[in-house]
Amino acid sequence: MTRATTAGAGGRGVFGPDSILGVVDVQPTFMPGGELPVADGAAVVPVINRLLASRFACAFATQDWHPPGHGSFASAHPGRAPFDTIALAYGPQTLWPDHALAGSANAALHPDLDQRKLAAIIRKGSDPAIDSYSAFFENDHRTPTGLHGFLSERGVRHLFLAGLATDYCVAWSAADALRLGYAVTIIEDACRAIALALPGGGTTRDAARADLLAAGARFVRSGDL
Question: What is the pLDDT along the chain (225 residues), one digit of tens a residue?
């Protein structure tokens, strides 16, 4: 990876233009008090702000951005409850509480997030028929968000990912980035997980981490950068 010569703490520099920080779904809807809270989710904001201030010249952000009655909402399926799984046209779908309603205050980027270095904001999940976890594709794995084209035109080769949640939108974004040929580093202390229990034991966080390591992703702490 390329680094600029600007010195940071301990002599470390800012990552160069071939690297970018992806800030995934840092929205109040996923924070304590939101509609789909991730435990300790608000703790990612100061870590991300420190990284933006000292390590990255450029970043992008994603937002879940759902219309009312979205097909991923349990409320759209009578008799179903949040966290049930159903089959939709594009495959298995976890059902969620209504969240990230387009235009609502809780769907906005977190008000404490430093947005000055955000070069793009990718809104996903706006099609009422298809959920969208990944920053690159909707859950049909075919419909692009436009992020890959944006990054390719800028010459980005290495994605550093932070945000919510480690085992869903961060994980799916990382998996797609690896398939598209990017190097991927997940900054663990800048992420939090939903960590749903799996029938065979373990959690969705454990499974996502194992799958991503096997696919070639790296996991680091922010202090290691």
Answer: 222 323 233 336 789 999 999 999 999 999 999 999 999 999 999 999 999 999 999 999 999 999 999 999 999 999 999 999 999 999 999 999 999 999 999 999 999 999 999 999 999 999 999 999 999 999 999 999 999 999 999 999 999 999 999 999 999 999 999 999 999 999 999 999 999 899 889 999 999 999 999 999 999 999 999
Where are the extended beta strands (E) located within the chain? 3-7, 13-15, 19-24, 59-64, 85-88, 91-94, 118-124, 158-164, 183-192, 218-220
Catalytic residues: 25, 124, 169
- What is the CATH code for 3-7+17-224? 3.40.50.850
| DSSP SS3 for 184 | strand
Are 110 and 31 in contact by the 8 Å Cβ rule? The answer is yes
pTM of the complete model beyond 0.85 = yes
